[in-house]
Amino acid sequence: MQHPILSRRRFLQNSAAFAALASAPAILRGAPSDKMLKIALVGCGGRGSGAANQALSTYQQGPIKLVAMADMFEERLTTSLNNLNAKHADRIDVPKERQFLGFDGIDKVLATDVDVVLLTTPPGFRPEHFEKVVKAGKHAFCEKPIATDAPGVRRFLAAAAESKAKGLGVQSGFCWRSKYAEREVYKRVHEGMIGDVRAAYGTYLGASPWVKERKPEWNDLEYMLRNWMYYCWLSGDHIVEQAVHTVDKLSWAFGDVAPISATGQGGRQQRVEDQFGHVYDHFTIVYEYPNSARGIIACRQQQGCANDVSDHVLGTKGFVRQTSGRMNVIEAGSERWKFDGEKNDMYQTEHDEFVASLRAGKPLNFADKIAHSTMLAILGRMSAYTGQTITWEDACNSKEDLRPPMPLDFAAKYPTPPVPIPGRTKFI
User: In which residue ranges of the chain is pLDDT below 50?
Assistant: First the structure.
């Protein structure tokens, strides 16, 4: 039985309704230019601090303040607060009583007077946090991805439906959708400049990120949280956590239509030590789309290898070439188009546009699209882990819950799960 929201037909219907929502009057009051917009940060790592900086940098639209922060670890919250205070001293109002630590930090943040919550913790917590934000009637910036497994995606989508019913804004961390060059490229693709899209190929080939050496005082859970990228329940593996940007652009090329199935492969060639948890260091996924079209993703996190982040789209009349985010070229027969328009900071633009929509009383809500691209990456990981071709419907209805037993307990033991073995690891 296919999931009613993530079915291909239903997703297109939701997308159309969602597009109309962006221009519909908000049910909740807007935030006109003279209203103080109060924001909170939940997850004070590098990306969270960056998102807070960008949100505070919208001050020219109207008054805005950071009024609450939450994280698992005090030193990370303090470092983030100090860095933000150095840039935005007059827009920071986070006294000690609004600095929250622990798993219930999100609840304490939502008990304060806040308008917008920036959700930037490891993505394994995103479905629960988003659900709570929506129930509290707050707007949200959701960093990608929004879940690490299908039950999490379904939980997020249920909250997304409620967010739209309440007229709440939900901004996406899929920052390439805010890049002017990419917008112009995919606008022309959708207008038919290269004809029907027959294939898309994207790469996210990069080095391995940081890993933190275990300290004697760290228990299993703290070690996992501090090295969250290497545990699938927290990150979704790097195809879901990082290369999901490339997956999102592939989906964009196909007009965000759901695929039929995915066939993937991957494994651990270089990062085989225990410090890298149980995730893979490379994936290659082939997505089958309607009319025999194909989408292909290759991603890698390995040291000492060639890096490349590129996107290529092949149509019946031409092709798109985007190389490492710098070259944006379309060739269609004798016609050659190259983007020469205004360059922008895509991270800043997504916050500028989100805050503008809130102040206009017409909140942007990208919840469905964030969930769709996240699920697309999860489908690819499922196929690579199991070695099986998996359909979109089966993946969306998967019962595999990656979380350890809840509630989480620092005194409990959390052994590292086994590394998935294609052909032996079962689809659930």
Answer: 1-5, 8-29
Contact 375, 396 (CB under 8 A): yes
Model pLDDT for residues 361-395, shown as the tens digit of each residue: 999 999 999 999 999 999 999 999 999 999 999 99
Tokens of 217: 């005082």
| pLDDT at site 7 | 57
Name the H helices within 256-366: 346-359
Residues 81, 109: Cα–Cα separation, whole Å: 15
Contacts by residues 150-153 (CB-CB < 8 Å, ≥ 24 positions apart) = 150/375, 150/378, 150/395, 150/396, 150/397, 150/398, 150/399, 150/400, 151/398, 151/399, 151/400, 151/401, 152/124, 152/126, 152/127, 152/401, 153/6, 153/127, 153/371, 153/374, 153/375, 153/378, 153/396
Order of all β-strands in the sheet with 327-332: 335-338, 327-332, 319-323, 308-315, 197-206, 294-301, 282-288, 261-267, 390-391
What distance in Å separates the CA atoms of residue 250 and residue 51, rounded to the nearest whole number?
24
- The predicted structure's pLDDT at residue 21: 35
Give one word for 235, left, alpha or beta, with left for phi > 0 and alpha for psi -120 to 50: alpha
**Threshold 0.85, pTM exceeds:** yes
CA nearest to 379, candidates 371, 366, 390, 363: 390
Residue ranges of domains in the chain, CATH in brackets: 8-176+348-366 (3.40.50.720), 177-342+375-396 (3.30.360.10)
Alpha-carbon distance of 379 to 397, in angstroms, equals 11
Q: Which two tokens stand for residue 111?
A: 């008990």
Question: What are the CA-CA distances from residue 243 to residues 249, 266, 302, 308, 365 (Å)?
Answer: 10, 13, 13, 12, 23
The pair of structure tokens assigned to 381 is 């990981």
Contact (CB, 8 A) for 205 and 306:
yes
Whole-number pLDDT of residue 20: 38
